[in-house]
Design brief:
Length: 77
């Protein structure tokens, strides 16, 4: 996740086991145990230009499908 995009996670963690690791000046890695809910998916889609889902593969597939669906809407007009 881009570093500035995850600043709010220091104040409002996703879970009690959340860990934020600084990768470089622009990127942080965020890991947390959370339920795979529609609300989580909505948040990840809203952060799509600022983050990349690495794991859970099933979640990554769902996010990719939702993003591709949105792209189709924009490409069809």
């Amino acid at each position: 996740m881009q570093r500035y995009a995850c600043q709010h996670l220091y104040e409002r963690p996703l879970s009690i086991d959340q860990q934020i690791t600084i990768i470089d000046d622009n990127w942080n890695q965020v890991s947390a145990t959370v339920a795979n809910t529609t609300r989580l998916q909505d948040w990840l889609v809203s952060m799509s230009q600022l983050s990349v889902v690495i794991e859970l593969l099933e979640l990554k597939v769902v996010i990719l499908e939702r993003l591709e669906s949105g792209m189709q809407l924009y490409n069809s007009n």
